[in-house]
Every structure is written in C-alpha cells, then in structure tokens.
C-alpha cells in the first residue's frame, strides 16, 4: 500500500466515523474539549454562562436565578476581574474543567425568550 | 331553573343551576381558608389569594391575563376563614375557551420564586389598607382572642411572615388542601353536562391533610390607636352553620338590630340603637349592631358598638339581657323573622350572592337547600329559641376586642 492509499483509507475511515456516530461521539467530544480549553476563560475560573453577553433577555434570566447560583456567579466574575487586572491566571488544577461546566443560565434564558416570543405573538394578532 | 348535583369518583362535587342567563358564572370552592394555616405557614392564604394570576403549568401569567381579557371574562379570588373561592365570569358562548385557565389556576400553579417576590408590594398594600380600617381590625382581633387555633388565624399575612412565605410553604399548603375531595365546582348559567366535562379535568393526586377543629377560649384584645371613637366587639360562642341554633341566633341578631333599613333613618326598630341613644347624649357618634358569624363547627354572636362614651357598652348589654329575661314581644319576633327572610332572599338576587350560597352549601353539607326550605326553617324559630340564645350570650364566657381611644372602655370582666 502506498502513502496515497493510506491517506485514502484514513480519509474513508474519518468520513465513515463522522457519518455513523452520534453527536456525542468520542471524536466530537474531543474536539469540543479542545475548543473549550482554547477559549481560555476557564483559566480565570469562569463558566460558559458567566461570559454570555448581557442583553435584556439575559439580564432578566440573571434576575431569576436562585440566590446561591447568583452569588456563585458574582464570585467567579469578581475573581476573574481581579485576575485580569493582575494579568495572572489560576494554577492549572483550579481551571474550570469541561465536565464541570454547568450551563446554569440556559433553562432560565430559554423561559425568558419563550415568554418574550409569546408576547410578540399576541401583539401581532 | 334546573338544579343538578353530582359527586365525581375522586370526591369533587359538581353542582349547576341553569338560569338561562347570557352570562356564565363558574366558581371553584376549596376548603382552604385561613383556618387551615399552621403555625409555620401563617399568611400563606393571603399570598395564594394574590397569586391566582401567576404562571401555571398549562398557561403563563401573560396568557391567562390576555386570554381572559380578549373574551371579556374575569377571574377573581376571595377567601374567607374557611373557603377559597375562585370565580370566573364569561359570556355563555366563551365558556369552553376560558375553563382551561380556571383549571390551571386551581390545580396546577407553578409558584415561581421571582413571581412570588414580585407579589410582595401587593401584600404590603393589602395590609396597609386593612390597618386603616378599624372594622377589619376589630374583627380580626375578635377571632384572634376568641379561638385557640384554626379560626384565630388572620385573613392577612402577619408582619413577621411578610416576605418569608416560600415556594415550599405554598406547595405544601396546596398539596394538603387543594384536593378534589375538598373542592366543589359550581356553575350558574351553564349546562350540567358541560360542567361535568370540566369537573373531570380536576383529577388530583394530592392526599390532603386532616384539619383540627376550632377551640373557643374567650379572651380579650385591646388596641390603643387614638382617634375619637372606640370600636368594641363583644361576642360569645354561637352556633355552627346550618344548625337550628344558628337560625335562632340570626333571628336574635335581627331582633337586636343590624343597622338602619331606611337610609338616614333613626333606626326605630333596632333595640340596641334605641337603648343606647337613651344612654348617651352623643347621638351622632354612636352605633350598635348585633354581630353574628357562623363557621362549619362553631360561630360567634355578639354586639358591635362604635361610640365615644363608656356607658354605651353597658347599655347595649342591658338590651340583650332584657331579651334573655323574656322581654320579647311577638311583634318583635315576627318583624325579625321577616327581615331575616327578606335579607336572605335579597342576597340570592345577585349572581354573586347566589353562587356563593350555592357553593358554600354544597361544599359544607354536600346538598343544596332551596330558598323555600331555608325560609321555612327561619319561620320555625320560636320565641323561646330566641330567649335561649340571648341567655347563652349573657351567661357564657365572652370575648371582647376593642380598637381606638380606650381610656374609659370597660374590660370584659367589668361588664
């Protein structure tokens, strides 16, 4: 087998994998982990939902957070601002891990958006 | 008009009265009044009363409000010490569309924490308005002084619980009290078949909790609040609703007088009124009416006096003692019975009054007595029944609550 043949085999294998396996396949998860670490916000101890751009929907969703979740969010943001000012990052063992990142704001945000859309539907009638 | 009543398998009572009106009125009566609050969740019924328009599992708050407004319907909640009543008015043709809101509100509320904290200003306004009214104050204090539990709970959230009623409190109270067996679905101007279909959607998996009986203790509460007048409410334990004794107390109440029947009249037929005007030289700041309240297992009966002079309370008592000693003419008795029957029948003239009467009767006794039956039972009250009722007031342990400028007001043991 020549190099081209190897390449073709590898290519065929990758394409087959992508087609056959589900979204949570080992390949995609691996890619996601790499991307998460490349984003870099986990190095200053933040979670994905801490970094979301605060438009009016997000502001309302944050208002609805239960008290502990809100306090944890504020702590993480303060710590990140402090580190950013000092131009430092956390030691590697304190970086937020991909598995530990909880999308805590998502259910509240979905509900806020659903309510806004309901209001817009009514206004159209 | 056609009356129908059925009890569904899960205990829900469905009753309807077809009056061929263009407006339908549906009420859900739940045994979830303030008497069912426990020491841990005092004030939860006040919050529930205000929370009827909040998001439910089937419809958001926005949709309930706009959906009802779009068809001109209205949903309101009233609560008493024993019952919570959700009543929905709509045009007959819109009946099918709006019942889903009523079902959602009474069986599947969501109790979202942020919506509940947004209710706080409304609780405070309710309490501020109640504080301004000495009538409400004296009535709440009377119940607090008269009973050890259950009926002593206030209709308003106590100060120490404002802001502290949590989602858990609400969910627990809901699970314990909003069960099908403790609910009655009553409709005016609806067909019984349509109402039954609505009733079938009231399935409930809650088991409910047992409620304690009310224990009368007879006490005294006085609130110094300045002002020129004293509001005093003096009561004894009366009779439970629906009993023959309750009818006797109601007739006695009319014998003593419940307020002028002619506007700006001098209230000649009221024994209390006539008695106290002779006792004091301040005729314009004085008013005495007989007070009667009945609950499912107890009741209160007494006199409510607004005055400046301290002699008025004793004068009012003297009038009741006079009746207890048998000084009751046949004319007085007939007049009182006629007034009571007229008041009762007139209250049934409005759809609100009729719905309330239907619902409370169906929920407490499982049946509905026609107005004829009620007027007959009033008519059967004899003079000796009334005298016995007055004697009971004179001899039993009394409760008193006073509100106002109390420097000269006698204590209950000094009367």
Automatic annotation (TrEMBL), chain A:
<comment type="similarity">
    <text>Belongs to the UQCRB/QCR7 family.</text>
</comment>
<keyword id="KW-0999">Mitochondrion inner membrane</keyword>
<dbReference type="InterPro" id="IPR003197">
    <property type="entry name" value="QCR7"/>
</dbReference>
<dbReference type="GO" id="GO:0045275">
    <property type="term" value="C:respiratory chain complex III"/>
</dbReference>
<dbReference type="GO" id="GO:0005743">
    <property type="term" value="C:mitochondrial inner membrane"/>
</dbReference>
<dbReference type="Pfam" id="PF02271">
    <property type="entry name" value="UCR_14kD"/>
</dbReference>
<protein>
    <recommendedName>
        <fullName>Cytochrome b-c1 complex subunit 7</fullName>
    </recommendedName>
</protein>
<dbReference type="GO" id="GO:0006122">
    <property type="term" value="P:mitochondrial electron transport, ubiquinol to cytochrome c"/>
</dbReference>
<dbReference type="InterPro" id="IPR036544">
    <property type="entry name" value="QCR7_sf"/>
</dbReference>
<keyword id="KW-0813">Transport</keyword>
<keyword id="KW-0679">Respiratory chain</keyword>
<keyword id="KW-0496">Mitochondrion</keyword>
<comment type="subunit">
    <text>Component of the ubiquinol-cytochrome c oxidoreductase (cytochrome b-c1 complex, complex III, CIII), a multisubunit enzyme composed of 3 respiratory subunits cytochrome b, cytochrome c1 and Rieske protein, 2 core protein subunits, and additional low-molecular weight protein subunits. The complex exists as an obligatory dimer and forms supercomplexes (SCs) in the inner mitochondrial membrane with cytochrome c oxidase (complex IV, CIV).</text>
</comment>
<comment type="subunit">
    <text>Component of the ubiquinol-cytochrome c oxidoreductase (cytochrome b-c1 complex, complex III, CIII), a multisubunit enzyme composed of 11 subunits. The complex is composed of 3 respiratory subunits cytochrome b, cytochrome c1 and Rieske protein UQCRFS1, 2 core protein subunits UQCRC1/QCR1 and UQCRC2/QCR2, and 6 low-molecular weight protein subunits UQCRH/QCR6, UQCRB/QCR7, UQCRQ/QCR8, UQCR10/QCR9, UQCR11/QCR10 and subunit 9, the cleavage product of Rieske protein UQCRFS1.</text>
</comment>
<comment type="function">
    <text>Component of the ubiquinol-cytochrome c oxidoreductase, a multisubunit transmembrane complex that is part of the mitochondrial electron transport chain which drives oxidative phosphorylation.</text>
</comment>
<keyword id="KW-0249">Electron transport</keyword>
<keyword id="KW-0472">Membrane</keyword>
From TrEMBL, chain B:
<dbReference type="GO" id="GO:0046872">
    <property type="term" value="F:metal ion binding"/>
</dbReference>
<dbReference type="GO" id="GO:0005739">
    <property type="term" value="C:mitochondrion"/>
</dbReference>
<dbReference type="InterPro" id="IPR050361">
    <property type="entry name" value="MPP/UQCRC_Complex"/>
</dbReference>
<dbReference type="InterPro" id="IPR011249">
    <property type="entry name" value="Metalloenz_LuxS/M16"/>
</dbReference>
<dbReference type="Pfam" id="PF00675">
    <property type="entry name" value="Peptidase_M16"/>
</dbReference>
<keyword id="KW-0809">Transit peptide</keyword>
<dbReference type="InterPro" id="IPR011765">
    <property type="entry name" value="Pept_M16_N"/>
</dbReference>
<dbReference type="GO" id="GO:0016020">
    <property type="term" value="C:membrane"/>
</dbReference>
<dbReference type="InterPro" id="IPR007863">
    <property type="entry name" value="Peptidase_M16_C"/>
</dbReference>
<feature type="domain" description="Peptidase M16 N-terminal">
    <location>
        <begin position="14"/>
        <end position="159"/>
    </location>
</feature>
<protein>
    <submittedName>
        <fullName>Ubiquinol-cytochrome c reductase core protein 2a</fullName>
    </submittedName>
</protein>
<keyword id="KW-0496">Mitochondrion</keyword>
<feature type="domain" description="Peptidase M16 C-terminal">
    <location>
        <begin position="164"/>
        <end position="340"/>
    </location>
</feature>
<dbReference type="Pfam" id="PF05193">
    <property type="entry name" value="Peptidase_M16_C"/>
</dbReference>
């Amino acid at each position: 087998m020549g190099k081209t043949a190897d390449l073709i085999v590898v290519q065929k294998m990758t394409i087959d994998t992508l087609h056959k396996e589900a979204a949570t396949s080992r390949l995609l998860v691996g890619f996601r982990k790499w991307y998460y670490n490349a984003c870099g916000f986990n190095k200053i101890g933040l979670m994905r939902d801490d970094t979301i751009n605060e438009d009016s929907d997000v502001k309302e969703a944050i208002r609805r957070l239960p008290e502990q979740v809100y306090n944890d969010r504020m702590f993480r943001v303060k710590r990140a601002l402090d580190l950013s000012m000092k131009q430092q990052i956390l030691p590697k063992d304190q970086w937020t891990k991909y598995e530990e990142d909880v999308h805590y704001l998502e259910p509240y945000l979905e509900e806020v958006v659903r309510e806004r859309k309901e209001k817009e539907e009514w206004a159209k009638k | 008009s056609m009356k129908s009543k059925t009890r569904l398998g899960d205990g829900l009572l469905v009753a309807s009265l077809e009056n061929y009106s263009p407006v339908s009125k549906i009420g859900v009566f739940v045994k979830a009044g303030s008497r069912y609050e426990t020491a841990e969740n005092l004030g939860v019924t006040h919050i529930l009363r205000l929370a009827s328009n909040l998001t439910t599992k089937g419809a958001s708050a926005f949709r309930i409000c706009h959906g009802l407004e779009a068809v001109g319907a209205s949903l309101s909640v009233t609560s008493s010490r024993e019952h919570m009543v959700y009543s929905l008015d709509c045009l007959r043709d819109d009946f099918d569309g709006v019942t889903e809101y009523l079902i959602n509100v009474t069986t599947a509320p969501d109790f979202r924490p942020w919506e509940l904290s947004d209710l706080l200003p409304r609780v405070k306004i309710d309490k501020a308005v109640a504080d301004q009214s000495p009538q409400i104050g004296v009535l709440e204090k009377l119940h607090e002084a008269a009973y050890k539990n259950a009926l002593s709970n206030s209709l308003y959230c106590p100060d120490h619980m404002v802001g502290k009623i949590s989602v858990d409190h609400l969910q627990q109270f809901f699970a314990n009290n909003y069960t099908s067996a403790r609910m009655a679905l009553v409709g005016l101007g609806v067909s019984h078949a349509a109402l039954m279909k609505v009733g079938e959607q009231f399935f409930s998996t809650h088991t409910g909790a047992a409620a304690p009986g009310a224990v009368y203790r007879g006490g005294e509460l006085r609130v110094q609040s300045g002002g020129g007048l004293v509001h005093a409410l003096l009561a004894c334990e009366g009779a439970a609703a629906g009993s023959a004794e309750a009818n006797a107390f109601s007739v006695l109440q009319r014998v003593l007088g419940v307020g002028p029947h002619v506007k700006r009249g001098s209230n000649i037929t009221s024994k209390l009124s006539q008695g106290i005007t002779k006792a004091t030289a301040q005729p314009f700041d004085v008013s005495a009416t007989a007070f009667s309240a009945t609950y499912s297992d107890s009741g209160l009966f007494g006199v409510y006096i607004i005055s400046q002079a301290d002699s008025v309370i004793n004068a009012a008592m003297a009038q009741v003692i006079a009746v207890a000693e048998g000084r009751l003419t046949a004319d007085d008795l007939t007049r009182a019975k006629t007034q009571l029957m007229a008041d009762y029948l007139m209250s049934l003239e409005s759809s609100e009054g009729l719905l309330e009467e239907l619902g409370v009767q169906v929920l407490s006794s499982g049946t509905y007595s026609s107005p004829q039956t009620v007027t007959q039972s009033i008519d059967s009250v004899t003079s000796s029944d009334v005298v016995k009722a007055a004697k009971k007031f004179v001899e039993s342990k009394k409760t008193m609550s006073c509100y106002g400028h109390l420097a000269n007001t006698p204590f209950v043991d000094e009367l």
